[in-house]
Amino acid sequence: MIGGALLFWVWSRNPKGVPQYEYSIAMLIPIWSALAYMAMGLDQGKTEVAGQITHYARYIDWVVSTPLLLLALGFTAMFYVPKQERSITLLFGLVAADVVMIVCGLFADLSENSTARLLWYICGVGAFLCVLYLIWGSLRQIALNSDAELGAIYTKLAGFLTILWICYPTIWAVGPSGLGIINQTTETFLFVVVPFFSKVGFSILDLNYLRDLAPRKPAYHHAA
C-alpha cells in the first residue's frame, strides 16, 4: 500500500494535465488502508462476537477508502465536465450509499444471532445495489455523453471495480460470519489481497488513463 502511495506521489510531480486532487485521493486511499492493516498486523482493531473474530479495523478502513475510490471514479466520469457543472448531489448519493453499506456490514459482523446478522447483511447488499445503480447509470451516462473514449475508459474502470467489489460480500458470505465455508485465516488473506487490487490496482489504471487523456482533453459540450 505504501509503495502504491509513493508511486502516485512520483506521478504527481509530473501530473501531465491531471488535477492534483486526483493524485491526492489516490495517495490517501492506500495510506489509510496501510494504517488499518498495520493495526491488524499488531493484533489490534478486533473483537470477539459469538465465538468469531470481527476485525472492525477493516470497516474503519473501508468507511474512508471506499468513498474515496467512488469519488475517484466519479471524477473520472466527470473529467470533461467543468467543476461548476459537476453533480455534487450525485456524488453525495454515491458516497452516502457506500457508507450505509459499510456500516450495515459492521453491524452484521457484530450481531450475535443469525437473524440479525442476515438482516444487516441484506440491508448492506441493498445499499451496494444502489451504488452499482449509480455507477452504471447516471455516472456512466455522464462519461458517455462527454466523450466516446472517456466513456469506454470509464466502462472499463467501472467493470474492474465492480468485479472486485462483488468479491467483498461474497467473501463475507462464505467466511466465518456467514456460511463458514472458509476459515478465518483464508478470509483475512482474501480481505488483504482483494483490497490491494481494488485500491492500488484501480488507482494505477485510473491515473494512467487520465494521464493519457488529459493532453488531448476536448472542449466540453452538453449532449443533446
UniProtKB/TrEMBL annotation:
GO process terms (BP): phototransduction
Chief place where the protein resides: membrane
Superkingdom of this protein's organism: Bacteria
Keywords, in A-Z order: Chromophore, Membrane, Photoreceptor protein, Receptor, Retinal protein, Sensory transduction, Transmembrane, Transmembrane helix
GO molecular function, one term: photoreceptor activity
Membrane topology, from the record: Multi-pass membrane protein
Pfam families the UniProt entry points to: Bac_rhodopsin
Subcellular location(s) of the protein: Membrane
Keyword set includes Transmembrane: yes
Residues passing through the membrane, by range: 21-39, 59-81, 88-108, 114-136, 157-182, 188-210
This protein's GO CC annotations: membrane
Family: Belongs to the archaeal/bacterial/fungal opsin family.
Name recorded for this polypeptide: Bacteriorhodopsin
